[in-house]
Specification:
The chain contains 13 helices and ten strands. The chain is α/β, with parallel strands linked by helices. It has a six-stranded parallel β-sheet with strand order 5-6-7-8-9-10. A two-stranded parallel ribbon has the order 1-4. Helix 12 runs parallel beside helix 13. The longest helix has 25 residues. The chain is globular.
Length: 330
């Protein structure tokens, strides 16, 4: 299922026949999803057992120390540097940019095949393309610990790279969305939450570039689908500075949905946040109760989509996922 787009589609068809069809879904083959995350990965059937869940390995990919890697990024340009990193972490490593471009081509074909299959069934793609903020990619590439030291030791260098490289990410992402005739862009800002950075650091290092991305996408008629893992409560006030309805949050159990709604006051919409732990270890009655309370407290006010917190884990109980869907039926 992870390696084959046809097996992935077949598995999803079987699943939806049992639990009902969702309104939206990610149309990305799991193998492609882990390919673009920018971290070394252990895959089932290779480094892991056949039925194990894939694992990301946070490893320092910076070659140059004492802040020199940031100078190299500015010299090379973001796309060349990030492409070099993606080539390096493949197993076995890619030896040419052509291999990387070919791999992206395969990914595009797989996404298109999945999207067309499920669109014909009335299931919309959640996003039409995706990207990660420069800040978050740097954090993953250098490891969280080392990157925190750099934010303290070389703050101006870090900020220069983030701000000068963000337009490259924006341009490439908009081009990809237009090529696919899409208007929803996934932005994976998974290291910009209060789980990883202080609100002050967010304001200094993360928000200026993230705001630039949201506003640039919105100017092209595109909505930012912000995959917001972790605790985003201290950061949500900033999102009232960007246009109304320009952001749709994907929140997990670390962000209190009720408090988030109070802060945003309907300015941006949100999806979530049935916890992975509840889907795996709870009972159908517990899932139903959680969902119904969430619908009553937040959903009935508008701008809310019920969904899993982050994702439905592979070891979720079938009856619990069915209970989540059934909570929406009158």
């Amino acid at each position: 299922m992870i390696n084959s787009v046809d097996r992935n589609i077949e598995a999803l068809d079987i699943t939806f026949a049992k639990i009902g069809k969702p309104d939206v879904m990610m149309c990305t083959l799991l193998k492609d999803n882990v390919f673009v995350m920018g971290l070394p990965v252990r895959l089932p059937g290779k480094e892991l057992g056949e039925n194990d869940l894939y694992q990301f390995v946070e490893t320092d990919l910076f070659d140059l120390q004492d802040g020199e890697e940031y100078d190299r990024i500015l010299q090379m340009g973001w796309q060349a540097w990030n492409g070099m990193m993606l080539c390096r972490i493949q197993n076995p490593p890619f030896t040419s940019p052509e291999q990387l471009m070919a791999r992206f081509g395969v990914m595009g074909e797989n996404c298109g095949k999945m999207a067309m299959h499920f669109i014909s069934q009335g299931i919309a793609p959640l996003t039409h393309t995706a990207c990660a903020p420069v800040y978050d990619t740097l954090s993953q590439s250098h490891t969280m610990e080392e990157f925190c030291f750099d934010m303290f030791d070389y703050p101006e260098k870090v900020k220069e790279v983030v701000m000068k490289c963000t337009p490259d990410v924006i341009g490439q992402t908009i081009a990809g969305a237009k090529q696919g005739h899409g208007n929803r862009i996934g932005v994976y800002a998974m290291r910009s939450s209060a789980t990883f950075v202080s609100p002050d650091s967010f304001e200094e290092f993360c928000w200026p570039a993230l705001k630039m991305m949201i506003e640039a996408f919105w100017a092209e008629g595109m909505t930012t689908i912000l995959h917001a893992d972790g605790n985003w409560l201290p950061m949500l006030k900033y999102f009232k500075e960007v246009p109304k309805s320009s952001v749709h949050f994907e929140l997990d159990g670390d962000t209190d949905m009720r408090k988030a709604f109070e802060i945003l006051e309907g300015w941006q919409s949100m999806r979530g946040d049935v916890p992975a732990s509840l889907l795996c270890y709870g009972t159908p009655d517990e899932v139903s109760e959680y969902c119904e309370k969430l619908i009553q407290d937040v959903g009935m006010k508008g701008g809310f989509m019920l969904g899993s917190g982050c994702e439905v884990p592979m070891n979720a109980k079938l009856e619990n996922v069915m209970a989540m869907g059934n909570s929406l039926k009158l």
